Amino acid sequence: MDNTISIVGHTALDHLFNVEKIAGPNESFPILDYEISYGGGAANIAATIATLGGKCQLISGVGNDFKSSGYEDYLTSTGVDLSHLYRMEDEKSTKAFVFTDKNHNQCTYFHWGPSARLKKTDPPSLDFVHLATSEPVFNSKVAQKAGFVSFDPGQDLVTYTSELLETILYNTNIMFANKHEIKRVCDMINQPFDKLKDMLDVVVVTYDEEGSRIYTDDIDYWIPAIPVNAVDPTGAGDGYRAGFLLGYIQRYPLNECGKIGSTVASFIVEKAGCQTNLPVWNDVEKRCKYYYDLNLSD
Amino acid sequence: MDNTISIVGHTALDHLFNVEKIAGPNESFPILDYEISYGGGAANIAATIATLGGKCQLISGVGNDFKSSGYEDYLTSTGVDLSHLYRMEDEKSTKAFVFTDKNHNQCTYFHWGPSARLKKTDPPSLDFVHLATSEPVFNSKVAQKAGFVSFDPGQDLVTYTSELLETILYNTNIMFANKHEIKRVCDMINQPFDKLKDMLDVVVVTYDEEGSRIYTDDIDYWIPAIPVNAVDPTGAGDGYRAGFLLGYIQRYPLNECGKIGSTVASFIVEKAGCQTNLPVWNDVEKRCKYYYDLNLSD
């Protein structure tokens, strides 16, 4: 194993609109401003790991506007290995259209595009893989062939059947979820949390700006979040996973992996967008030392 | 005067989405499919006139994605003169995002972008101009400087003040409106229809698939629409205006201008999209002869 982390899931162009009001049926409202930002959980994580100095490849479906949008050149510049992308020239890239009104109400339309078509694709065998939000059938095929599996169904959990979820969990080493998702996962497989823990090496549950909790069979770590001036929480979870996994593959102890993840997330939230404020390893070392009194270089 | 028709108004990229449901606040729904189509009333009319063989220039604000979207090359290929565009490299082009659900409910978000910034722009003096849906202050400045003015406030009527509307009407020769808009115009200037007619040389009122009516002080023509297999009514009004104006500048009688407009519209509705089925003059001649028994070449 050469310490390459493979990330499976969405590479998406996020269209983020500020609008006067959320438009219902037969309504029309002006857009106050909007921006297109690089997103998709898998791409967020891959770009973060690569920027931190890790080896990382992205396993993702992309469409015919991946190059023209600038996203391809940008990801290449971070150092992510793009040689395993599924390029679909007859599809538009995966996209989210998110409309936010003045009262912070939000509605979203999601174009699955290439991500949906991964369902019928036969994945490669991977040594160390993180399954981010992604097409469930493809994720299950990857999990069954991979050496080491990290899994985070995220908001795509609603698209999983219980059977697919169980298949993946039987092949998973580390699972990530937020406090709502972890409960739903237990419900879907009809098992209490303790049984879920038994199925996996590690379970990481994130609690937004409060922190995260890392469970193994016999240990339970609480990692408080770093208090920073959070401008936009979007992408914080992806940053946490990127830092955690890069720590894990470098054999840092679990509680330190959590602190690395939490430190990375603290940078992401300081600017709007998921990939606009990616730290390098040296930034993480300094902040980890300052807030957690943890020397990563020791 | 060299028979050039100047068209003022929006050049927009229409993003047309089919979605499972219209998303309300804090809802998320998948996009079933979507396409980006060339639109904006002014650009629709200009492309139609140029394709018919007329001389036409577009007075419109465009953003930094006008070229990369393919729209610029397309308009150039139709023969529209683009040398009077306001190019704004720090703005995204004017866009409409239209979401349609399975029950044909529709909601729209409109990004004014460059069109909004025309407000502060000093327009050129134009011999023969059609004011399409556009920024009202800019339209009024154009109207006050132009030789001959055709005016169609369209769905942007809601953005006009009564004062701006009156200023434009005092400088207008031909006005176009649908049956709802004409009533609203009268309400806004607090005048009965007969008084409005007195202010203008010609008033054209369109009645969707039924036809149109052309009023002068003493004449009132009814032009029945041509019955065709209408796939998508979007852009029909723009097609009508293009045909009418091209006929008018070539000194066809008013009732024939209406028949030319109606014939052009009958082509537009046969295909989805506003600029996907533009006829050439010969097509119009043939259909005009067939349905109206009118020889345009006489």
UniProtKB/TrEMBL annotation, chains A, B:
Belongs to the carbohydrate kinase PfkB family. PROSITE patterns: PFKB_KINASES_1 (PS00583), PFKB_KINASES_2 (PS00584). This is PfkB domain protein. Pfam families: PfkB. Keywords: Kinase, Transferase. It comes from Methanohalobium evestigatum (strain ATCC BAA-1072 / DSM 3721 / NBRC 107634 / OCM 161 / Z-7303). InterPro entries: Carboh/pur_kinase_PfkB_CS, PfkB_dom, Ribo/fructo_kinase, Ribokinase-like. Residues 5-279 form the Carbohydrate kinase PfkB domain. One of its GO terms (biological process) is phosphate-containing compound metabolic process. The keyword Ribonucleoprotein does not apply. One of its GO terms (molecular function) is kinase activity.
